[in-house]
Amino acid sequence: QQDRVKWFEDTRLGTMIHWSLCTPAAGRFNGEVLRNSTYAEWLRLHNKVQRADWDQMAKRMPITEEAIEDWVVTTKRGGFKYLTFVTKHHDGVAFWNSKVSDYTYGNLSGTHFDVLKCLKEKCDKHGIILCAYYSHWLDWGDENGTNNDWDYADGNKPGFDLDAAGRGEIDAPFRKLPTREQYDKYWREKAMPQVAELIKDYGIKLLWFDCWRKDPVKETPMTQKQLDDMLSMIRSLDPTVLVNTRLGIHEVGDNGVDFETMADNEFPENKKSHTWETAATFNHSWGYNRDDQGWRSTTYFVREIVQSISKGGNVMLNIGPRADGSIPQEIKTRMEEIGKVIRTNKEG
Ligand code: JFZ
Fold it and tell me: How confident is the model at residue 151 (pLDDT cuts 50, 70, 90)?
């Protein structure tokens, strides 16, 4: 475990790229602004966007190789060493040509373009370590996945009564759940094999899962066995791959995962005895949101980076590119300014 986390602790700084089907909408759908949230990537759930409409978004995302290379170059010029790409967000759409599920950007856009493959090539070219965010718990695109009560409302999806199951503490957007059997089918037929693909076919060095619940086994449909199976599969495929606590396993160390993910934009008061990372946003939304103009200052990030490093932690700053992959100028400027402060060698 110590050896495994060494590169991560040594590098300290990474970027995150949230580029998904939410980007053409940029925080609005059918003239209506995003409901209940500033997170543009939650539009599908909050505004109850039907699958047919959602899938059309892929046709409005004219990404280029140059734009993808710029994600990597911007990362590098900022003095950041690894890049965590959102390979599948909560909407369930994969950004690589998955053999496991046909619900991919390549298929929906009709381009068959493998974004992750291209990104991997660019990362290798520029010496940036490629990591993957993968939404394992939530998948609104899979009929056996979680929480989609707008596409699968009428009997297609039995769901079960959380109160009866003694799990009434779960809040409203999370109440519609599949049965145990349905969810296990999703787990075995999509989540597990897709994570395997990321490791085997793309050489992903770190898996960034995203279940932030305190007690995942009680508060989500995931079981302890499913979580343990996921971790042991990853270990057996490649024992050097790192895993974060948001898998739903909170123990960090030899018997658990490799590092703790702090709450978003949060930094600990004191030094911690284990490896940790904070993911932070330049504004508030992770996905591109034209209505979110609350940009934090470069000074803010430089201070947070210094504080995190002195407390033994990593910082990952999020980039939410537009639908064509271009990075908003507000982010470009801040990355460039941060780079000037922290870059370790002249050409960086
Ligand atoms: C989650 C996602 O829902 C979000 O879309 C984004 O991908 C982000 C990186 O992760 O959102 C969270 C999860 C946890 C906290 C806040 C937002 N938290 O613990 O403070």
Answer: low
Helix (H, G, I), strand (E, B) or coil at 227: helix
Across the chain, where does the E strand assignment appear?
A: 13-17, 28-29, 32-33, 82-88, 129-134, 206-209, 242-243, 260-261, 276-281, 313-319
Residue pair 229/237 in contact (Cβ under 8 Å)? The answer is: no
ipTM above 0.95, yes or no: yes
Res 16: pLDDT: 98
pLDDT higher than threshold 70 for residue 347: no
Query: What separation in Å is there between the alpha carbon of 277 and the centre of ligand 1?
Result: 13
**Which ligand 1 atom minimizes the distance to the CA of 18?**
7
Is residue 295 lining ligand 1, measured as CB closer than 6 Å? Answer: no
**259 DSSP 8-state letter:** B
Residue 45 beta carbon below 6 angstroms from any ligand 1 atom = no
Question: According to the model, what pLDDT value does residue 164 have?
Answer: 35
Both tokens of 217, joined, read 């086994």
Q: Please state, in angstroms and rounded to a whole number, the distance separating the CA atoms of residues 313 and 305.
A: 9
Phi/psi at 297 (5° precision): -85, 160
Kindly state the tokens that stand for 141: 């695109």
What is the CA(341)–ligand 1 centre distance, in A?
28
pTM for this prediction: 0.94
183 alpha carbon – ligand 1 mean position (Å): 22
